[in-house]
Amino acid sequence: MGSQEQSSYFQTLLCVILLSTLGKMVNSLDSSLLRDFFSILLLQVSMWGSDSFLVIGPSEPIVAMLGTDTVLPCRVSPALNLESMELRWFRSQFSEAVYVYRNGMEQAGEQLVDFKGRAELVKDYITEGRVAVRIYSLRISDNGMYKCFFKKDSDFEVATLELKVIGLGSGPHVFMVGPEDKGIRLTCRGKGWFPQPEVQWTDARGEKIPSLSEDETQDDDGLFQIEASLIVRDSSKTEVSCSMKNPFFGQGQVETISIPESFFPRTSPWKIAFAGTFLILGGFVVAVMFLAWKQQQEKRRVWEVQKEKKEESKAKELLEKELVKRKQLYQQDWRKAKLYADWRKEQFKVAAITLDPDSAHPNLILSENRKQVSLMENVPQNCDASVCQGQEECEAVFSVLGRNCFNTGRHYWEVQVNMGTVAGPVNKWAVGVCSNTVRREGWFVEGPEKNIWVVAYEKGEVKFPTSPESLSLKQHPQRIGVFLDWEDGDVSFYNMADGSHICSFTGLTFYETLCPYFSLRGTGTSVTICSGLDYTENCPDSSPNTSVTHLRSCDTGAPQEAKPLLLP
């Protein structure tokens, strides 16, 4: 009977004995404990009856010198004949094969290029379950982790082993660099080490001295070159040793250097006195130079301030002259230039406009001084114009006229429009002039065909009644100047916040008396008249100095060209 058959026989006999003993213990054992025991027993029996195996590698790292040969052994337990099995040694990836044995022969096609011709299978004991791969001429790249993979039919196992490649380089070589920082600088160099060696300085009594600095580099082969420095200031340390040791192998080399006492720098008392005097004089000179520099900087700052003031004064004088020149040109032909609202006001008479209560829509509220108009709360909003038939109150335009009306001359006034905290889609206002004979009952369109000339805000856009498109303005005007030239047939609107031109009705012929016109819609919307003596009370002056922001041409008459900046 073979050894494997004997083992199976004894295992079966052991099972029979355990089962017979178990039958006697049934009455005394707990049922749950009995089930656990059966499970363990059946698992053990199934393991005894299977062909499973374990792959075992070295428990400690394999240490080998650089350039020598080494073996990576693995074995199976229980011992089996490995000749019919697949054997593979590889690195981190299964495809990184170091050596592959299958079908009784080497499979060189699956081997990494670095190991071709450098790896062979040691199979002296392959029938006893022990094999190894020998690697020749170890390199730094061979250092690291390996795995051996054994496969039989569908069963396979893997073991991990580690290879540490050791390189004992040359050195250390110790030499003196020279005096430095009240001592002697020593340097210790070594090269050709792997891994990076441990460097340690010691004195004659074996006491450790910490390094001042350590610099290490690796060459193309991965070997370390290291340089450590030390400054010895104690003249009693005439012998200093430098050792380099491999951290894994423990083997290293030592070199000692002797430093004659005469090499240590000595400090003369006269040098100390001279150094102290030099420091005091140096501090005094630095202080004097600093004070002189500070005084020079102060003079320079004063000079720059004076220069800057002169330049500002000159620039202001030139600007004033330029403005006078421009104003003279403007006054010569101011009608063609839709610019400079503040200069344009000089050609018009300020109209002290007040609101006429008799012309106000019942849903409007007028202030006591007749300078402000707002809308009552809970007033129905405008309906869609497409259904504006038979819905008088919903479709009414809430308007009011100014008490002051004109049939001659040039007049202007300013108004402040307020959209409330949140301007909704129904908020609307219109500002301008209209004929005193206009019928304003119910719903109507505010436009020249109705003898109403206004600029309006509706649905978040400032619009001109004669144009279907909204006006492209840099900002929505809140303070609007209305300029009426009755004889010349011109109604112009300006954004008084920046003096920019909004739009104009030109080339008109008036036959009737014209009155200031105001209409509004939406909760929180109000209009305040600012012209007259109450500019500062109701409408803070926000118009800037005379400047050109932009020019908009939306005249209803024949187009006219304005001269840019009124310069020839």
Walk me through what this model shows.
The structure is a single chain. Helix content is 21%, strand content 34%. The chain is an alpha+beta fold and 568 residues long. The protein has five domains: 3-49; 54-166, Sandwich (Immunoglobulin-like); 170-263, Immunoglobulin-like (Sandwich); 267-332; 341-566, Jelly Rolls. Helix 1 (3-25) packs antiparallel against helix 2 (31-49). The termini are far apart. Residues 1-13, 39-50, 384-393, 533-537 and 541-568 have low confidence and may be disordered.
Summarize the structure.
With 568 residues, the protein is of the alpha+beta class. It has helices spanning 3-25, 31-49, 269-332, 341-344, 392-395, 535-538; strands at residues 54-56, 62-65, 70-77, 86-90, 97-102, 105-106, 119-125, 130-135, 144-152, 155-166, 170-180, 183-193, 198-203, 208-209, 213-218, 224-232, 239-245, 252-258, 349-350, 364-366, 372-375, 399-401, 410-418, 428-435, 452-458, 461-463, 479-485, 490-495, 500-505, 514-521, 526-529. Helix 1 runs antiparallel to helix 2 (31-49).
